[in-house]
């Protein structure tokens, strides 16, 4: 077994670094989902929500992040609660934003 002179970060710090890196990719993926929904206008409620949030003063980035929170909630319902995608439920989540 080789030894190195380089100090190793404690395991908890390595784990936090791992989590941060994955959180970054997860967030980027969710924001991409929102951008795809807006671009494709599918569902149209996503684009409508973006326009509404921008009209009340949110920045583009913050508005997309807020919509992303609704995407995450809907994904949670689909995966964790084993419920199918529900457009009405998703629209309700979007309506609560801002």
End-to-end gap: 57 Å
E-strand count: 0
Rough outline: globular
Rg for CA atoms: 19 Å
Number of domains: 1
Our estimate of the beta-strand percent is under 5%
> Number of helical runs?
4
Mean pLDDT: 84
Which labels suit this protein?
single chain, 4 helices, 72% helix, globular
Secondary structure elements and their pairing?
Blueprint: H1 11-40, H2 44-55, H3 60-79, H4 87-95
Helix pairs in contact: 1-2, 1-3, 2-3, 3-4
Short account of what is shown:
It contains four helices and no strands.
Describe the structure.
The protein has 98 residues and is mostly helical. It has one domain (11-95). It is built from 4 helices and no strands. It has helices at 11-40, 44-55, 60-79, 87-95. Helix 1 (11-40) packs across helix 2 (44-55), helix 2 runs antiparallel to helix 3 (60-79) and helix 3 packs antiparallel against helix 4 (87-95). The longest helix has 30 residues, at 11-40.
């Amino acid at each position: 077994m080789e030894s190195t002179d380089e100090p190793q970060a404690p395991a908890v710090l390595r784990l936090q670094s791992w989590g941060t890196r994955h959180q970054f990719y997860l967030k980027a993926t969710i924001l991409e989902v929102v951008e795809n929904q807006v671009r494709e206008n599918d569902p149209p409620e996503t684009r409508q929500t973006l326009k509404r949030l921008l009209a009340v003063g949110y920045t583009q980035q913050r508005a997309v992040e807020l919509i992303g929170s609704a995407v995450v909630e809907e994904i949670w319902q689909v995966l964790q609660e084993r419920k199918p995608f529900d457009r009405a439920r998703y629209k309700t989540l979007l309506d609560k934003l801002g």
